[in-house]
């Protein structure tokens, strides 16, 4: 047997083929463009996703494991609005997660009684419901023609199965789902002028959504293949890293920063700007704090200084230094957790004539680490158990930064020894579960730990004090915006 995981990203699609033991054997990637017609707009043509998938499959078909394909799972970037008419034709380009045009509609929905209570979340401008409200006002013809709204992963599910079907984890980011009840909410749909018949059928991410269409099976050279419900990208990453239960979590140091914790129950705290979503397995949820400029902050400093990020961090060595005098607020693109502030921007303070590039680099790393601490505090306030965290993403290559984050959070960081993990692997695991009916805990295991980065005990108190000076600095900068 073989299983296929599809990770539909914002800039490209990755398809990962695993064998009957779940070990990766081959992968293929294809890339596509994002359209920005106006400031704050971000759109994509769903036809590009299909073309990317077809091309990736053509490459993987040469593998000897391919004819044994039995299960497929799709992970996708969340919140995107793909509109279909009554003949399943795409009406307009998909409005993506990082599109902010519907900020006013989001604020109106967020202020509507019981919306936060049922959805478990603030209605962010990037979520799906405010996008449809924007369309209702600004593109009424497209809104009137809309027979179905599918998230990007659900659109690929439709292409694969011919059915309109989505999983709980992805649907939790629409502001139409009762996240605690794991079903579409009539009240939330009505608040956004939508109907249940415009929504896809809901399944759990590890359950079968359908089978691969006969035409595709013939073209791909496979037999009967089960397609799983799939997952939103972060839920799939949690499946790929074995983050399923209370006490499991990861910190992802990518362009944006994510601190995610699995939850054994439903514990929303929308006022903290935490995201509370269904997990891709039944009876589980997860919460995450999101900061918008994580490695992007270091990339920005590298760009303006004419250096590579590794050239900035190398002079710091691996021995953690006490907090510096220079402070950096990492709000280059606004912030989500805990501020929900799209307008705030970053700042350096404490700069003197003696300040050099190494000081600025340390300040950037510290500022981002304090931003992640904001998310950790919000998660702890919601009752999450952060006993240790898996560290993933490009930023985890810097041992200095890892020691800094471990110390600021006062949590050990576990580094994977090697190998594949993340959303594509999580999607393949979901496809396997849908086909084989195995128990999630038996399949969604954590990667082997190669190294544990412990907090630097002698500096925990100093960074704790520095963190408590960091919060008021946000409000000071906000006051002069």
Task: Let me know the average pLDDT.
Answer: 94
Strand content: 15-25%
Question: CATH class of the largest domain, anyone?
Answer: Alpha Beta
* Domain module tally: 2
Counting helices, strands and paired strands, the structural category is alpha/beta
Helical content (DSSP H or I, runs of 4+): 25-40%
Radius of gyration over alpha carbons? 22 Å
**The CATH topology of the largest domain is what?**
Nucleotidyltransferase, domain 5
N-to-C span = 58 Å
Please count the helical segments.
17
CATH superfamily of the largest domain: ATPase, nucleotide binding domain
Largest sheet: 7 strands, mixed
Q: Would you report the number of β strands? A: 24
Rough outline: globular
CATH architecture of the largest domain: 2-Layer Sandwich
Give the low-confidence spans.
Answer: none
């Amino acid at each position: 047997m073989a299983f296929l995981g599809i990770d539909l990203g914002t800039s490209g699609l990755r398809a990962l083929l695993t064998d009957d033991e779940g070990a990766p054997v081959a992968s293929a990637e294809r890339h596509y463009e994002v359209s920005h017609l106006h400031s704050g707009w971000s759109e994509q043509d769903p036809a590009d996703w299909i073309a990317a998938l077809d091309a990736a499959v053509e490459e993987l078909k040469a593998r000897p494991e391919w004819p044994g394909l039995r299960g497929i799972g799709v992970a996708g970037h969340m919140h995107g609005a793909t509109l279909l008419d009554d003949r399943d034709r795409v009406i307009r380009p998909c409005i993506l997660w990082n599109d902010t045009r519907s900020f006013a509609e989001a604020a109106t929905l967020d202020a509507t009684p019981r919306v936060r209570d049922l959805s478990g979340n603030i209605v962010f401008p990037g979520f799906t419901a405010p996008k449809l409200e924007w369309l209702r006002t600004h593109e009424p013809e497209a809104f009137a023609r809309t027979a179905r709204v599918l998230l990007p992963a659900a659109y690929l599910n439709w292409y694969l199965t011919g059915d309109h079907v989505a999983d709980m984890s992805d649907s939790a980011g629409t502001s139409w789902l009762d996240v605690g009840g794991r079903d579409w909410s009539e009240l939330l749909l009505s608040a956004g002028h939508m109907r249940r018949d415009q929504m896809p059928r809901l399944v759990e991410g590890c359950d079968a959504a359908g089978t691969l269409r006969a035409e595709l099976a013939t073209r791909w050279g496979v037999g009967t293949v089960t397609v799983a419900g799939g997952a939103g990208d972060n839920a799939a990453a949690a499946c790929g890293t074995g983050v399923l239960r209370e006490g499991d979590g990861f910190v992802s140091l990518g362009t944006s920063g994510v601190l995610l914790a699995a939850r054994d129950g439903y514990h929303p705290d929308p006022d903290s700007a935490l995201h509370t979503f269904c997990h891709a397995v039944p009876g589980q949820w997860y919460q995450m704090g999101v900061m918008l400029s994580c490695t992007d902050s270091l990339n920005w400093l590298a760009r303006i200084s004419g250096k590579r990020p590794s050239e900035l961090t190398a002079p710091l060595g691996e021995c953690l230094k006490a907090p510096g005098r220079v402070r950096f607020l990492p709000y280059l693109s606004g912030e989500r957790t805990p501020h929900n502030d799209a307008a705030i921007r970053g700042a350096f303070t404490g700069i003197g004539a003696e300040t050099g590039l190494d000081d600025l680099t340390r300040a950037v790393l510290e500022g981002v680490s304090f931003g992640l601490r904001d998310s950790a505090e919000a998660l702890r306030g919601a009752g999450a158990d952060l006993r240790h965290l898996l560290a993933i993403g490009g930023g985890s290559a810097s041992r200095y930064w890892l020691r800094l984050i471990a110390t600021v959070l006062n949590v050990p960081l576990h580094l994977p020894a090697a190998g594949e993990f993340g959303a594509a692997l999580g999607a393949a695991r979901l496809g396997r579960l849908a086909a084989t009916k195995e128990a999630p805990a038996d399949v969604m295991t954590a990667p082997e730990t190669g190294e544990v980065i412990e907090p630097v005990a002698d500096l925990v108190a100093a960074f704790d004090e520095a963190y408590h000076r960091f919060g008021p600095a946000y409000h000071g900068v906000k006051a002069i915006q």
